[in-house]
Design a protein that fits this description.
Blueprint (H helix, E strand, L loop, with lengths): L11 E13 L5 E13 L11 E8 L4 E2 L4 E10 L17 E13 L5 E7 L15 E7 L15 E2 L6 E2 L3 E5 L2 E2 L5 E6 L40 E3 L5 E5 L4 E13 L2 E15 L20 E3 L12 E4 L10 E2 L5 E3 L8 E5 L7 E5 L1
Parallel strand pairs: 10-17
Antiparallel strand pairs: 1-2, 1-17, 2-6, 3-4, 3-5, 3-7, 5-6, 7-8, 9-12, 11-15, 13-16, 14-15, 16-17, 18-21, 19-20, 19-22, 22-23
Length: 365
Amino acid sequence: MCVFSPVFAKHITGGEMIYDYLGPGTAANSKRYSITLRLFRDNNCVQCAVMPTNVMVAIFNNDNDINITGYINVAISSTEILPLNPLPPCITNPPDLNYSAGYYIFEVDLPENNNGFTASYQTCCRIDGIANIPDQVGATYITTIPGKNTLANAETDNSPRFSKGISVVCYNKPFTLDFSASDPDGDLLVYSLCDAYDGGDARNASYGTPAGPPFNSVQYINGFSSSQPLGPLASIDPNTGIISGIAPDAGKYVVSVCVASYRNGKFIATHRKDFIISVAACDLPGAKLVTPYYINCDSYLVNFTNLIESPLNVTFDWNFGDPGSGANNTSTLPAPGHIFSDTGIYLIKLIVNKGSPCADSATAP
């Protein structure tokens, strides 16, 4: 009796595909590009495969959806350990984050066409136990090279590329994630949260026939979505690519960011990065008040509390912006109530751990 076990790719934490224009191709009316697939691996993943030594990539003509290159076997060119961004001050129980990137680079000549080309790589499977998508879901990483309908005359283009730093995110605490990108052409970049793609028909790590567009979104579960992959309290700044807000519960979350490039007001292309974010069971001191404002139409009494609960918040210094209330304008209680001296708009300020290295503050009208 023979027993066969599939070889799963439970090691890939994310990826993006980048293109760079190199110059005219060898054939008439063609351009030469360097294509880079960048795959990310969580080196602390238990019972996970190593970074693949080879990947299969295909390039499709967007005029007719035909695979024009066949299936290109690309060997790994290099690997690097990803940098860890500075830890927040006074963090407790920080996670041990250790990620690497593998680079798969090849060059290709592409003929001029109207709608450009899409290069794709597909694999299975993401790790089990991700909080916002089901188990056994694969991934597709693509890049779309614009054609003559976008790049008129002698225009050329190089894709944006995302930053590589890794940040610690503590559950139910304020956080920032840097999904900013740089663009070699200096194009204007606009960011959004978007669908992560599944792996199509890929069922193992050595899938050899990646498909072209259209691609299917992963199925989001547990109330999460492509526009809220970290829940309703987190969002992305369309101008900077910084994701911020209040983190969800501890766990793993798939996040996909799209960045659209514009040149002189004209749309060029959309670039993507897909990454599994780890939200850790760490803790931080902090101050956060109700936004956009407090309001009370029934009485002069308003009750306040710090929205960040943590045993690391030791002292509380409140100022209610109401000098007319005299000595009652301040409080050191964790959750004070204040009777305002009159109707009006007041600026509230809270400082936790005032005077210590773990201090934080927040204001609200």
